[in-house]
Automatic annotation (TrEMBL):
UniProt name for this protein: Receptor-like serine/threonine-protein kinase
Gene Ontology molecular function, alphabetical: ATP binding; protein serine/threonine kinase activity
Domain Apple stretches: 396-472
Annotated source species: Lolium multiflorum (Italian ryegrass)
Bulb-type lectin domain residues: 63-180
Chief location category: membrane
Pfam families the UniProt entry points to: B_lectin (PF01453), PAN_1 (PF00024), Pkinase (PF00069), S_locus_glycop (PF00954)
Reaction(s) this enzyme catalyzes, per UniProt: L-seryl-[protein] + ATP = O-phospho-L-seryl-[protein] + ADP + H(+); L-threonyl-[protein] + ATP = O-phospho-L-threonyl-[protein] + ADP + H(+)
Domain Protein kinase: from-to ranges: 569-853
Gene Ontology BP terms: recognition of pollen; response to other organism
One of the record's GO cellular component terms: membrane
Length: 854
């Protein structure tokens, strides 16, 4: 006979129980002793009532509980002492059950943990605590799941107030816990370690393991990965960024994270966030949902409903694999319509409702599970395979054509990438490769992405890319190929049909001539009118409306000249001026303070100017000045950027007459590190590698916390990637900061910025502008830098560091870190090497400076 421990509902209220006991004592002529016994029984009754109200919180060894014998309404076996959590048999189908832990007060019993999510048991299964091992058994006695504690002194299983199911020995030492093997949810105080991972559910309402996982990678970062049946890819944090660009660190190998009860999440890789409703009286859960989005939920104790208080992705189409291969991810509800009174995350959910659709010529594999994607329709699959198999014998590539899918792109899985090529060259590149499925092409820049796999497809109204899908000729109807890219074919005379009416008699010829002339006249008039309309709309069009970078750049937009004239009060307050133009202070209608720069000598045409701005607008880094937008009206070219409170590094560092406090050593080191991070991003990480060409203290701005932000990046011509960089047309930069290769007419690369950065480092340490280092008899500031670095090399090679007290800025009165000063000077000396190949990269500089911080 199996012992059963489960929750028993209280069928008699405490008030009626008390009345029954008092009446019983009166009818029996109870004396004082009897009355005392009665009250003792009452106390016991209250304790039992409390125990029954919450249910048993532990299961002793040698006991078991079956699905058939459990309470039909709840299937509950254990309840936590605080009544928040319950565990037992969770019904997932008509006769299928899992052993799970759920929130008692939530609507629908929200599951927090499941032991056997992929192998359910039927209604004849049971849970047994035998041989010091807690196990879930199927109808035939087969163990589907167990704690594997056989051979240990395990004595009972307990459900704690935290939602943690534990197996303990007689001294309450934990031998096993559910917290160490989560399913898709992390609870407050439950640690996330390198041994654990969260795995999403397969679909809404299904608890089988899905395709998404949250885990600590071998580089110590917390990551989200898509594990599809055909491909696998990390999609969070941004895989194309470095760790520091994503705000992470790879140096802490503890690999530990925890969600606190207050709603704060803290991780060893510096990924931290706060719930929108911080507080310790809210029940929370962090769940990796079936759609691959990581969300923090808060429970409304009154209604029992959950609300999102944080989410990893605000645009769910950025998550890999949601719509599978050969399909597009779209937002089916227009952005902007939200319910009033809801929190920001609820509004985002309302705005970003997901829809999937197959490409033309494809059909969905499983309409109930879009992650399986789409396949070519049956009548077209055979033709595709036949043409591909014959590809080796095709020399003219005429068996395939392309169908244009406007404003669409499939990210990743490019077998080749080229730029500055015409579209017909991109087309032939795809035709010449049998595995090529399509190519994406961006006009203007001539960027070509040939693809072997169509995955992560997105379609936005204003995306710059167009997709050209490779299809066999003769498979699609004329309407489907209306926008196909094909060669223009000329009809030769010998192909004319001599039996046509045109050649039968002269009157027919004349009638045909008149009708043809009228038709041509009508077409010509139509084209003229259409052209006028297009020109009119072209002049009035919004120049840059790419939704992708509108989201990335946050409010990056085009301003009119009148707007900026009003914002700057007719360009009244000038903040400064330089070779590229003057900067004015302004305030937009939304009360944002901005800096408006009038650009001088802009030689690019409007299209080239907008093209460069489309790249700059996508750039975002904490150590780069944020560009809000631009104005390009006739000859006026203006940039609108964020206003930085403390001005330039030059004004703070070199203005000895200023009443502002002297930059302390910690601030200087942080400025050196921040500038290095910004330059490393420009050189190695952003969409187009950018050489600044004018790194100097005037172009390093300091915000209210003295965090550095680099200004004026991207104002010179963008250089091509690789070692064959184009040489700029004229020398940019400022004397004293210009690298030697400018004078030698060598191609300019990022190493020119490294040289300038080295000079800025020297000035940060010494506190004096480099032009003031010129000694008597020297006329060139470059010679002064060279002589100074040669002397520094000799001093740095010695063991005596007392010279630092005379070299470091005297205003610090010796209050600086000797080790950090030595590192900064060694970096500076290596950066200003005459031979640029001997200079370090900015990413190496960041690593070196970071090593002391870590």
């Amino acid at each position: 006979m199996r012992d059963i421990y489960m929750a028993v509902p209280l069928d008699v209220s405490l008030g009626s129980r008390l009345n029954q006991m008092i009446a019983m004592a009166a009818t029996r002529g109870a004396n004082v002793f009897t009355t005392s016994i009665t009250f003792l029984l009452l106390l016991i009754s209250v304790a039992l009532a409390k125990d029954h109200a919450h249910g048993r919180s532990y299961l002793v060894g040698g006991s078991s509980a079956s699905i058939e014998d459990s309470t039909a309404a709840t299937n509950t076996i254990l309840v936590s002492p605080n009544g928040v959590f319950a565990c037992g048999f969770y019904k997932v189908a008509t006769n299928a059950f899992t052993f799970s832990i759920w929130f008692s007060s939530s609507t629908g019993k929200t599951v927090a943990w499941t032991a056997n999510r992929d192998v359910a048991v039927n209604g004849s299964g049971w849970l047994a605590f035998q041989d010091r091992n807690l196990a879930l058994l199927d109808h035939n006695g087969t163990a589907v799941w167990s704690t594997r504690t056989t051979g240990t002194p395990a004595s009972r299983a307990m459900l704690l107030d935290t939602g943690n199911l534990v197996v303990v020995d007689p001294e309450e030492r934990q031998l096993w816990m559910s917290f160490n093997s989560p399913s898709d949810t992390l609870l407050p105080s439950q640690p996330m370690t390198w041994e654990m991972k969260l795995v999403s559910a397969s679909a809404r309402g299904l608890f089988y393991s899905g395709l998404y996982s949250l885990y600590f990678d071998s580089d110590n970062q917390l990551k989200l990965i898509y594990n599809g049946p055909e491909v696998s890819s990390i999609y969070w944090p941004e895989p194309f960024n470095s760790a520091w660009e994503n705000g992470r660190t790879i140096y802490n190998s503890s690999r530990y994270a925890v969600l606190q009860q207050t709603g704060q999440f803290i991780s060893s890789d510096k990924f931290n966030f706060n719930a929108s409703d911080l507080g310790d009286k809210v029940m929370r859960r962090l769940t990796l949902d079936y759609d691959g989005n990581l969300r923090l939920y808060s429970l409304n104790a009154t209604s029992g409903h959950w609300s999102v208080s944080w989410m990893a992705f605000r645009r769910v189409c950025d998550i890999h694999g949601l719509c599978g291969k050969n399909s597009l991810c779209k937002y089916i509800q227009p952005i902007g319509a939200t319910d009033a009174g809801t929190n920001i995350y609820k509004q985002l959910e309302q705005r970003m409702k997901l829809g999937c659709s197959c490409l033309e010529g494809f059909e969905v594999i499983d309409a109930s599970n879009w992650s399986k994607g789409c396949r070519r329709k049956e009548n077209k699959t055979a033709n595709w395979d036949k043409r591909r198999s014959q590809k080796a014998n095709i020399t003219s590539n005429q068996d395939f054509s392309f169908r244009k899918v406007a404003k669409t792109d499939f990210y990743g899985y490019d077998f080749d990438y080229v730029e500055h090529v015409p579209i017909h060259q991109c087309r032939h590149m795809c035709l010449d490769n049998a595995d090529c499925q399509a190519f994406a092409y961006r006009p203007g820049k001539g960027q070509c992405y040939a693809k072997v796999y169509l995955f992560n497809g997105r379609s936005f109204p204003n995306l710059h890319n167009d997709l050209y899908l490779k299809v066999p000729k003769g498979v699609y109807s004329s309407s489907e190929l209306a926008s196909t890219v094909t060669h223009v074919c000329k009809v030769h005379e010998k192909e004319a049909n001599t039996s046509s009416q045109m050649f039968k008699d002269g009157s027919s010829k004349f009638g045909y001539f008149i009708s043809s002339a009228l038709t041509l006249l009508f077409i010509e008039v139509t084209l003229i009118i259409t052209g006028c309309v297009i020109v009119y709309k072209w002049d009035r069009r919004p120049e840059i409306t790419d939704e992708g970078y509108m989201i990335i750049s946050s409010q990056f937009r085009i301003f009119s000249y009148k707007e900026l004239q009003k914002a700057t009060n007719c360009f009244k307050e000038e903040l400064g001026s330089g070779g590229s133009g003057a900067v004015y202070r302004g305030s937009l209608d939304d009360e944002r303070k901005v800096a408006v720069k009038k650009l001088n000598d802009v030689i690019q045409g409007d299209q080239e100017f907008r093209s460069e701005l489309s790249v700059i607008g996508r750039i975002y880094h904490m150590n780069l000045v944020r560009i809000w937008g631009f104005c390009a009206e006739k000859k006026c070219k203006l940039l609108v950027s964020e206003f930085i409170e403390n001005g330039s590094l030059a004004s703070v560092l070199f203005d000895y007459q200023s009443l502002s406090p002297v930059l302390q050593w910690g601030q200087r080191y942080n400025i050196a590190l921040g500038v290095a991070k910004g330059l490393a991003y420009l050189h190695h990480e952003c969409l187009e590698w950018i050489v600044h060409c004018d790194v100097k203290p005037e172009n390093i701005l300091l915000d209210k916390d003295f965090e550095p932000k680099i200004a004026d990046f991207g104002l010179v011509k963008l250089l091509k990637r690789g070692s064959n960089a184009q040489m700029l047309s004229k020398v940019h930069g400022t004397r004293g900061y210009i690298a030697p290769e400018w004078a030698l007419n060598l191609p300019i690369t990022g190493k020119a910025d490294v040289y300038s950065y080295g000079v800025v480092l020297l000035e940060l340490v010494k506190g004096i502008r480099v032009s003031s280092w010129i000694v008597e008899g020297e006329e060139e500031v470059e010679m002064a830098v060279r002589c100074s670095t040669e002397n520094l090399k000799e001093k740095l090679a010695g063991e005596d560091q007392s010279w630092l007290l005379d070299f470091v800025d005297h205003r610090l009165d010796g209050d600086f870190n000797f080790s950090e000063a030595i590192v900064m000077l060694k970096i500076a000396v290596s950066c200003v090497e005459e031979e640029r190949a001997r200079r370090p990269s900015m990413s190496h500089v960041v690593e070196t400076l970071n090593s002391l911080v870590e």
